[in-house]
UniProtKB/TrEMBL annotation:
UniProt superkingdom: Eukaryota
GO molecular function: calcium ion binding
Domain EF-hand: from-to ranges: 21-56
Gene3D superfamilies: EF-hand (1.10.238.10)
Protein name: EF-hand domain-containing protein
Length: 117
């Protein structure tokens, strides 16, 4: 039955399969982060990808990153919503220095966080 005093065993995060493109991983993460299926991710939805949601410093960083990813159009201001294109473009650029295994691990963690909330 197990020792009731010992901490629960950590389950490994399911990984995206090797060979899956980074773009496809981002599409999958986006799909599960877009809770209301509006086709865009709000700041509230985006914050699901953070691990310490009750930490003010983490929330501030998440808001700053969200703002960087949200692009203004040629004749428009930022709209406060990340499109699939903005989300993918930003994460591919910010993860450019990661090797495929590290990128897959990061994307898999985001997917797990998005599915859990």
């Amino acid at each position: 039955m197990g020792n009731l005093c010992s901490p629960p065993a950590k389950r490994p995060v399911p990984q995206f399969p090797e060979g899956m493109s980074r773009e496809d991983m981002m599409k999958e993460v986006f799909k599960y982060t877009d809770d209301d299926k509006s086709g865009g991710i709000s700041l509230k939805e985006y914050k699901q990808l953070g691990q310490k949601l009750d930490d003010p410093a983490t929330n501030a960083i998440m808001a700053d990153v969200f703002d960087q990813a949200d692009k203004a159009g040629w004749f428009s201001q930022k709209d406060g919503v990340l499109t699939l294109e903005e989300f993918t473009e930003f994460n591919l650029a910010s993860g450019k220095s990661l090797d495929d295994a590290a990128f897959r691990k990061q994307a898999s963690m985001w997917l797990q966080l998005a599915k859990a909330r």
